[in-house]
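Working notes for the structural subgroup meeting. M.R. asked for a predicted model of this chain before we commit to crystallization trials. I am recording the input and output together here so anyone reviewing the notebook later can reproduce the run.

Input as submitted:
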Amino acid sequence: MDSPVHFRPMGPKPLSPKELEALRHIRNRIVHGAEPPSVRDLQELLGYNSPNAAAYLIACLSERGYLRRRKNGKLQLLREVEPGPEHERTVEIPLVGSAPCGAPLLAQENVEAMIPVSLKLAKPPHRYFLLRAVGDSMNEAGINSGDLVLIRQQSVADNGDRVVALIDDEATIKEFRRTKDAVALVPRSKNKLHRPIYLTTQFQIQGVVKAALPDWEKG
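Returned structure, recorded in token form:
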């Protein structure tokens, strides 16, 4: 009797070099606050003569769960290339851009991308999101313009915490200080033009800053 044949199960098919290049271009544009590339943008970035090839790559990446179209037609990054077994374990954290512009901060329409973050930083069972820092009001606290700021979701804060507060539908990152009659959101900046914001009840704490993550792929 012949010996049984044992088949090794195959993992997901790896992305092709062009799929990886397309995903990198899309990812970098989204993460750094620019408009996601259009089909023609991607055509030029990849050096194709026809937009059909770029459209095909977007379709392939969408079918494999890396991208999807948001309601406004713009591309949304759902995940990045899987790390190898030698890498740290990560969890996908939503990047909600720079400000909510009228919608709730974590509304689906605000999610621009899902970014893998080490479980050593985004510790379960807490929930987290990423916000792109804009401006220099917190540079003395190690938060620079363009950094991806990791936020642990919570509605309360202690004195000295760096928080994300929602004021009139705009998100701001400041140091939290409570006084007897008010709350102060204090900048920590080398630019002395920034001043504390004094509030009573017309704001919401969205979370507490746990880390500022410079994006080394910028450029």
